[in-house]
Every structure is written in structure tokens, then in C-alpha cells.
Amino acid sequence: MSITDSQQRQLREWLAAVARHDAEAFRSLYNATSSKLFGFALRILARREWAEEALQESFISIWNSAGTYQFEFAAPMTWMAAIVRNKALDILRRAGDSMQAAADGFDPEILSALESPDPTPIEALQTSSSAKALARCLALLEATHRQAIVLAFYHELSYSDAARRMHIPIGTVKTWIRRGLEQLRRCMNGLEHA
Amino acid sequence: MNPRHLRENAGLREKLAAEYVLGTLRGRARRRLETWMGDEPLLRQAIAEWRERLYRLAELGAAVQPSAQVWNRIEKTLELQGRRNTPRRILWRRLIESLHVWRGPGITSTVLAGLLAAVLVTRQAAPPISAATQLAVLLDERTGPALLVSADAGQRLLTVRVLARLRVAPDRSLELWAVPRQGAPRSLGLLASEGTTKLPLPEDAAPLQAASLAVSLEPEGGSPIRNAPSGPILYKGAWAGT
User: Which of A168, B13, B184, B189 has the fewest Cβ atoms nearer than 10 Å?
Assistant: First the structure.
């Protein structure tokens, strides 16, 4: 299912109830977000059983720390996704080098939407308008810049890791990522204020 | 570079905030940024905005249904079945509210333990506090009482109430630890920096027998190290009467 904008308020209400340890609200929150978050964990970890472990640990953490959630600092999905990313990266670190990470973090459908000169595939994505804004802006980046940013995000790579992974000099990858991020910021601010 | 550069140079601020959220900012530079965060609202805001931008990646991709076992395990771990949704207002809350009157810097833990004892005695006319309830006041070394912890062994519930204003950067977490006289500390969960946090009290008696309780400052989501705080200890204390 997709997380539409009108659901954000509902998610906030559930999180507030979870902070009071309301088990029913927790179940509703899980039902509404677990498949999105599980897909995200899978893109980081590739292995299903590890992604399930990450999801399980994340929701336990959400239950225990919902009281620390401050809606003025983060959208509910941002806060939960940050927890999922941390847990997934923990698992990735524990697994060490034995784990071959997923290719570049994008599903083929998303990748082809980003690379299409036609905006229709992005608009057709089942996701929130803010995620579409990110997709539109990612689509405008040089493919190499985009790849470096997404690779670093999904695998928590340092500049030297990313350089090694992409077989390019570290100076190049720094330039790509920094330019890409700056362009992303301008583009997303532009869309927001449009 | 110092915090003033970040205040005056929006470009630099954006660049560091972006690399911080992305994860490419490492080592000393990362830690330095974290120490500035508490005092630099513009930096905090830039980081929050970058989170909103980059974490949209989580929503760019197929949703995949996890197996039903995941929920079953969560439910079992947190003992959700049969849980009451509105925890009843228990005596100790009133007790803390009355403690508020006395709180302030300079109160030592001994004085506070005395106050607790006095409150417990004078409140006997009210519904008696459960014999299974234990209380601990956690202190900030410089400013005095910061948190009040109560453990209800019957309901298997830990309740932590913030007594003072705690300054915690939005991407940091406070983690509560039971510290035994011997052996590894044990995490009891993450705390809200204001209001009240309720945590499940683990089944065994270890947390209640812990020599002391401590709260550490951790990266968001808690200590990356198993069974040990990774950040500084901000508050500590012991169960009253132990």
C-alpha cells in the first residue's frame, strides 16, 4: 500500500497513542506501514530473513521510543524509516563482509521511472507526493551522481567505500555526491515552494 | 571550523547536514557536528530538513508484505496480548507531582530519598502504594534531580518521568540502563526527553536488583553496542532504600 499525505496525520495520531502504550494503535500503525518499511529494509539487506529481523527490531524500538517522537522535527514515516535504516545497517555491520549487499537500492520499476525522459512513470508511482518530489529531482541528477548518493544511503558507505565500490577516485565520488546533494536540495525546495 | 562558521555560512551548514544524514560524514567531523547540534538550532533544522528529503527514499520502492511471524514475534516480545490500553493513574504519579514542589538544584539524592520516604509515609491514608513499586531518582551531577523512575513489578512496567528540562538533540536518544554490581549493564529502553515514558520491565528480577540506574546519550535508536552504553552517562541514581 502507499502512504498518502492524508495518512500522515493518522500516523501521527497512532504514534501518539503508541507513546501511551496503546496496543491497538500500535497494531494499526504496523498494518499501515510494515509493508512499506519491509520493502525498504529488503532494499538495504536483500535477504528476507534479515529484513524481517530488522523490521521486528524496528517495531520493538518504535513501541519503546514512540514517546521520544516529536512531530515538529520529522514526519512519522521519516522517523520510522530512520529507525529501520539504523536497525538494518546494524544487521549489515554484524554480518560483516559475508554479505553481498543489494545492487543499487532501486527496484527496476523505480529505476526505469527515474531514467525515463517522460514524467508519466514517476507520477504513476504509488507513493506520497513528497516521495514523488524526491523521484522527480533524482531523475534530474546525472545518473552517476544519483547512483553514488543512493549507494551511500543504502549501504552507509564512506567516501572511500563508495569510491572503491564504484571504481572511481575518492575525489570524484566526493564531487559527485556533494554536487548531487546540492542540486537535490535546490530542486526539492523549488518544488516545495512552487 | 567552529559553530560560528556554521551559523554564518548556510552553504557549509547545508553541506555538512546533508553528509551527516547521508552517512558519508565520518569520524571526528561527525562527532564534532553532534556536539554542536544541541546549541545550534539552524544546524538542527538543516539536519531535520535533510532527513525529510533523503528518507523519502524509503517510500520509493515496492511495498513487500512481511510474513505473519514478524508481528507474532513483536507481539510476544512486547507482551501485547491482554494489555490494557489505558494504564490507570497510579499513586506514584501524584507522588511525583507533589515532589515537583520541592525539586530544584542543590537537592542531594539523600535529601530526595528522605522526601520520598516522607511522602510515602504521609500518603498512607491514600490508597496504599503497591509494595512491589520501587522508586529511583536519577540525578544530573550539576543540576540535581532529572528523572524519576518507578518500577511496578506486578504490572511489569517501568515508568520514567522527566523532572527537569533535558536538552537532547533530535537525532540523539536517551537510553536507560540497569547497572549491576558485576557484569554487563542491561538496556531497559529509550526514554523521551520530556513527559513520561513507559517501558516493559523485563521478566527476571535483574533490573530491580541492579546496584544503580544510568541514562546515557546515544545515537538515534540507542547504543550500537550490545549491553553497553556508547555515549556519555548523563544521569544516574539508585533505587530508593537500597
Answer: B184
